[in-house]
Amino acid sequence: MLLPTCQYEWYGYPPSNFKCSELVPEGVPQCTFHDKNYLKDDNYEKHKEEVARRFREKLKEYSSNNMPLQFIGYCLPEISLEREQLTELLYFNSATFYGTVNFSHATFSEEAYFIGTTFFKGTHFNDATFSKGANFFEAKFLGEAHFSGATFSGVAAFQLVKFSRVYFRAAIFSEYGLFASAEFFKIADLELYSTKKHTFLEPNSPGRKIHPLLKLNFLEMLSLLKRNSTKKHTLVELHFQIELIFQEYS
What we know:
This protein is an alpha/beta fold and 250 residues long. It contains 2 helices and 22 strands. 16% of the residues lie in helices and 30% in strands.
């Protein structure tokens, strides 16, 4: 008797659609990756090792068959892919990381998608290499996010991202780095290098609400970039640190 598969489906771009193929027991609608309660509260300690082990198996299965790494909608515990060579397209769209995530020194050879991903704890992309595009559109970093020393060779999309504390020290952008309507709630520590002539930091779009101090600093940075941008590698160096007392604003 064939077991049914998980009922989780994703419709959106990219990819155009995704249907989870994980087997589940009869009468269980979703697999351990897509059951949002499987790692919540007291269940986290019970199930974190099981989920992490199965995630590693899934990664190996995809990689050994040269398949796209589709972890769309996954709910994951603490994960470390430090120094991992990720050679296929990577999708973590709508995924939720309940524990610390470590991608330090990892290499993303193809596009990496983290669209709508939620990171509850610390996230580490220190010295990671994104050889092609990196898309974090509408992601939420509720803990510290570290991108210091990261290299983005393709377009880096951070539009509508919510950052609590973020660090981009000595990050290198070879193409556009898009931060339109990104929100920074506590600390934004940026030291950015550009290899292109264009401006890669954008102010918040009209109508988006932002702390006045932060808005002022964005405008100041834009002015500096326009005056100092150059084709020479790493000549533009901007370092600003904003420490804001967290506040809800309407």
